[in-house]
């Protein structure tokens, strides 16, 4: 029983650990990736049950206790990691589109051909999504730069190039920059559009970050916008 629990535990860890890299490397599609994650999570539960039984038996028979404890540790560490993930995601709404301007979000143009297979549309979700964003990410707001639009655009483009994104288009006339970011572990594609417009005291910069797949982003798009705005403030 203890050896079986260890075997199932190791297999579960391998399934959970391999899902991201396999999808990132385009060796697994989206559905098989989530299927592999589901198998891994189920395996963790099975490991926990088997390990508890194995520990009880080992304590009574005074044999195989180290193996049983190892199996239990595999399950508990995995459950702990899942718990940390769930704790991190608490209070974050299930949205995948975040923007500094929820009334008139920057529009995607150049990335549209790249999103033909995307599950999420580019049309903004409206007041409901805006209300959820304002509640969860109240700090996401436009940035005003005290320089003319042409200079602000140059700074915005320079900052975007420091983010490690794949640059798709930059249109100084329209004041629009578009790029694609790829998440580290799963390789999910998220698209970014930056809009520079004239304002009384200089220029206004708005940013929008939109995931191609997923109902929620666990705060990824908001974090991306925050990081970009910090880089923009620091840009010469």
Care to describe what's here?
This protein folds into two domains: 2-89, no CATH class; 97-234, Alpha-D-Glucose-1,6-Bisphosphate, Chain A, domain 4 (2-Layer Sandwich), CATH 3.30.530. With 236 residues, the protein is an alpha+beta fold. It is built from six helices and six strands. It has helices at 2-24, 30-61, 65-89, 127-136, 149-161, 220-234, and strands at residues 97-99, 143-145, 166-171, 176-182, 189-199, 202-211. Strands 1, 2, 3, 4, 5 and 6 form a six-stranded antiparallel beta sheet that branches. The termini are far apart. A hairpin with a 4-residue loop joins β3 (166-171) and β4. The radius of gyration is 23 Å and the shape is elongated. Helices cover 50% and strands 17% of the residues.
The global form is elongated
Sheet-strand content, in percent, reads: 15-25%
Number of helical segments with 4 or more residues: 6
Unreliable stretches covering 5 or more consecutive residues:
none
Class by SSE composition: alpha+beta
How many domains? The number is 2
Classified by CATH, the class of the largest domain is: Alpha Beta
Rounded mean pLDDT is 93
And the CATH topology of the largest domain? Alpha-D-Glucose-1,6-Bisphosphate, Chain A, domain 4
Instruction: Write the element-wise H/E pattern from the N-terminal end onward.
Output: HHHEHEHEEEEH
Largest sheet: 6 strands, antiparallel
| Rg (C-alpha, Å) | 23 Å
* The CATH architecture of the largest domain: 2-Layer Sandwich
Tell how many strands the DSSP assignment holds.
6
Query: What is the terminal-to-terminal distance?
Result: 63 Å
Percent of residues in helices comes to 40-55%
